[in-house]
From TrEMBL:
<dbReference type="InterPro" id="IPR030382">
    <property type="entry name" value="MeTrfase_TRM5/TYW2"/>
</dbReference>
<keyword id="KW-0808">Transferase</keyword>
<keyword id="KW-0489">Methyltransferase</keyword>
<comment type="similarity">
    <text>Belongs to the class I-like SAM-binding methyltransferase superfamily. TRM5/TYW2 family.</text>
</comment>
<dbReference type="InterPro" id="IPR029063">
    <property type="entry name" value="SAM-dependent_MTases_sf"/>
</dbReference>
<dbReference type="GO" id="GO:0002939">
    <property type="term" value="P:tRNA N1-guanine methylation"/>
</dbReference>
<protein>
    <submittedName>
        <fullName>Met-10+ like-protein</fullName>
    </submittedName>
</protein>
<dbReference type="GO" id="GO:0052906">
    <property type="term" value="F:tRNA (guanine(37)-N1)-methyltransferase activity"/>
</dbReference>
<dbReference type="GO" id="GO:0005759">
    <property type="term" value="C:mitochondrial matrix"/>
</dbReference>
<dbReference type="GO" id="GO:0070901">
    <property type="term" value="P:mitochondrial tRNA methylation"/>
</dbReference>
<keyword id="KW-0963">Cytoplasm</keyword>
<keyword id="KW-0949">S-adenosyl-L-methionine</keyword>
<dbReference type="Pfam" id="PF25133">
    <property type="entry name" value="TYW2_N_2"/>
</dbReference>
<feature type="domain" description="SAM-dependent methyltransferase TRM5/TYW2-type">
    <location>
        <begin position="117"/>
        <end position="223"/>
    </location>
</feature>
<keyword id="KW-0819">tRNA processing</keyword>
<dbReference type="InterPro" id="IPR056744">
    <property type="entry name" value="TRM5/TYW2-like_N"/>
</dbReference>
Length: 223
């Protein structure tokens, strides 16, 4: 999946020897660019004696004269009389730089919001609302590439209507392989996700119920 864009932002060139005190003393967090993959708010400059402070392009713009002066004053208050030089930097952001939340927000229409997913072994399971279904393949591919150990992404396409509490699955991305392994309470289970109901979010509830039983209890919870 390709997702590449260029971002132009304001960067402030500072002396590398001053970075430590700037990080400790100067409250710049709300203005700085939020770390994104390999792109950090404090980056190396071409000159090893200098560093670059990268700023959020939505807050610090090329014509933000007053704010830039305020930032310079904040730095000099703690770092002393030091050379500061503003410049514009265009940074390429590739797919690997985006985290899951940001890339989904970038590719989906603004009015749509992907909420969450569950994982059972190598299988990632989602329950997409109807308005997200036109984008299900894109969502599936992103989850496949961004969620650790994921090899299969499925969407539940109907409700639980039978005594075994399983449901029909729609393969969105990855392998057509529903036999997986999960670990809960120190026990490893091997199961066919298409035939067995499994919800990792119930692990704490399982633990709570198990503590109510004694060693003579029978049934699934006795495992």
């Amino acid at each position: 999946l390709l997702c590449r864009t260029d971002v132009t932002l304001c960067a402030l060139r500072v002396e590398a020897s001053k970075i430590s005190i700037i990080q400790r003393k100067v409250r710049l967090e709300k203005y700085l660019f939020k770390n994104l993959g390999r792109i950090k708010s404090i980056s190396n400059a071409e000159d090893p004696k200098q560093k670059l402070l990268l700023f959020d392009p939505n807050l610090v713009k090329e014509d933000s004269t007053e704010l830039k002066a305020q930032i310079e004053a904040m730095i000099r208050e703690h770092a002393g009389d030091t050379d500061l030089l503003w410049e514009l930097r265009t940074i390429p952001i590739a797919f690997d730089d985006w985290d899951l939340r940001r890339i989904l927000k970038a590719v989906l229409p603004k009015e749509l919001d992907f909420s969450s997913y569950s994982q059972a072994g190598h299988i990632v399971h989602v329950n997409l609302r109807e308005n997200l279904l036109p984008f299900k393949k894109v969502i599936g591919q992103i989850l496949l590439e961004k969620v650790g150990k994921c090899r299969t992404v499925v969407n539940k396409i109907d409700g639980i209507t039978n005594e075994y509490r399983n449901f029909e699955l729609d393969l969105l991305a990855g392998e057509d392989n529903y036999v997986t392994e999960v670990i809960e309470g120190g026990v490893r289970y091997k199961l066919d996700f298409s035939k067995v109901f499994w919800n990792s979010r119930l692990s704490h509830e399982h633990e709570r119920v198990v503590k109510m039983f004694d060693s003579r209890s029978l049934g699934a919870f006795s495992i």
